[in-house]
Amino acid sequence: MPSMKEIARKAGVSVATVSRVFNSSPLVSEESRTKVLKCLDESGYHMNLQARSLRTNRANRIIALMPSMRNPIFAEIIGGMCDAAKSSGYSLILASIENDFGNASQYIEMLEDKQADGIIFISKSFKNEDIDAVRGYYPFVLCNEMLPDGNAPYISIDNYMAAVEATEYLVGRGCQKIGYISGQIESPSTHMRVNGFKDVLTRHDIPFSDDSMIFGTNSRLSEYPKIQDFIMQHDFDGLLVNSDIKAALAIKCLIEERGLAYSGIRLVSFDGSYASKLVVPAITSIVQPMAEIGKLAIENIIAQIEKRDFSSETIVPYKFEIRNT
Length: 325
Fold this sequence. Notes:
This protein has about 325 residues and is an alpha/beta fold. The chain folds into three domains: about 1-45, lambda repressor-like DNA-binding domains (434 Repressor (Amino-terminal Domain), Orthogonal Bundle); about 60-155 and about 290-315, 3-Layer(aba) Sandwich (Rossmann fold); about 160-285, Response regulator (Rossmann fold, 3-Layer(aba) Sandwich). It is about 45% helix and about 15% strand. The chain has helices at about 5-10, 15-20, 30-40, 50-55, 70-85, 105-110, 130-135, 160-170, 190-205, 225-230, 245-260, 275-280, 290-305, and strands spanning about 60-65, 90-95, 120, 140-145, 155, 180, 215, 240, 265-270, 285, 315, 320. The strands form two sheets. Strands 2-1-3-4-5-11 form a six-stranded parallel beta sheet, sandwiched between helices. Strands 7-6-8-9-10-12 form a six-stranded mixed beta sheet, sandwiched between helices. It is elongated.
């Protein structure tokens, strides 16, 4: 087992810095912390988290709460979180409410019992009451979601502008009958996207009615009958879709109902996960940098845990990738 002095020499830092990393001191720069942890990992050294937790009065664990395990974007977010957490000496507790908001309370109780130091709410995995239960008491951050009043730290793309750009693309391709297969009606980001969608239609004098939009969860295959009915009851020439999974279901419907070849209806989806590239045709997408969003969420909550400065709002750039829809 390498000594503290050996780790310090290899990392190019002082023994005091290594000691501070062991004790999760906020006085260590991120650059030095990363160097020390990398050297520890390469040396096969494993810090005793239980012993460290006794010294720091912290569990060194972070809860990452998802709406569902079924959406591929969450795997990408968690991948970014795992790398960032490991490099800072924290472990993750991965959990899902499986689209039942009543399930979040048991994870908040883990904070009360000091089994974890903070919680990351990924997408719409919370009720307003859950935010009230943690605000001012425990470190938390919203990941890939935000509150309308901004009264919670968050990491997200600009959902309004992303919807505007996607809808302008459809209009620019000649679409005049555009439907929106939207997300959960309880989600603030869903409403931001809806507002962007409606504003573009209004600007171009394109008629809009409530029946040209449906809401629903983003990852359940059981949404297919609803999507199928929605598409078949309208003569759309363009579709905006809230997730890659639902976009794939829409393409499945168009191919099955309107011929063996893709019907040619213009379609844009949110997320841009690997699923958007596997579907034939590949889906034109608003690509969210999910791994980066996950990494930033971890950095934010660790800063809160360690009582360092943190940003209350972080808007991450997205990309618009034109593929075959």
